[in-house]
Specification:
The chain is mainly α. It has a single domain, classed as Up-down Bundle (Four Helix Bundle (Hemerythrin (Met), subunit A)), CATH 1.20.120.50. It has 5 helices and no strands. Helix 1 packs parallel to helix 5, helix 2 packs antiparallel against helix 5 and helix 4 runs antiparallel to helix 5.
């Protein structure tokens, strides 16, 4: 069952006030063409990451039970790890000179994401969720636009050389 398919009876019984606070502060992350890198797998993965993050924050705002949010957080971590592995393998196939730095960025995010998701589900604090959404959204956008863009441009250039 996905986060958005959870039946009403599995929603958390927290106070109405917390839902109102959360719903006022929830602003979905958005995907835009500015985030496109030109590598279909990377772009598809990034869209999925945005959607997964939005689903988790929507689940918090909807007061879903902890086990559903924990499952969604676990799915996000698994997908993020898989995505990072796909990126890193592509960078290895087209010897990207900044691969080690990129891997370090990825490891830092996985550590932060894992810690943050555990705290978020445990605390159910609207301010913590909001700051996490802002932080993770900014990190994802910045990482895509700076680090992934540099790697994608390099890979696309290497691919064009191999076609020539």
């Amino acid at each position: 069952m996905t986060l958005l398919e959870a039946p009403v009876e599995q929603r958390n019984s927290k106070t109405k006030l917390s839902v109102e606070i959360a719903s006022v502060i929830y602003t979905p992350l958005s995907w835009s063409s500015d985030l496109k890198l030109g590598l279909q797998q990377f772009d598809d993965d990034h869209k999925t990451l945005v959607q997964m993050l939005n689903n988790i924050f929507l689940g918090f705002c909807s007061n879903l039970e902890d086990h559903i949010l924990k499952g969604a957080c676990s799915d996000l971590l698994d997908f993020t790890n898989d995505h990072f592995l796909r990126e890193e393998l592509a960078m290895e196939r087209h010897p990207f000179p900044e691969l080690d730095e990129h891997k370090s960025e990825h490891k830092g995010l996985i550590d932060t994401l894992s810690s943050r998701m555990k705290t978020l589900v445990a605390t159910r604090d609207a301010n913590t969720w909001q700051s996490s959404q802002d932080e993770l959204g900014s990190w994802l956008s910045d990482h895509i636009m700076v680090h992934d863009k540099k790697a994608a441009d390099f890979i696309l250039e290497q691919q064009s050389f191999s076609l020539a």
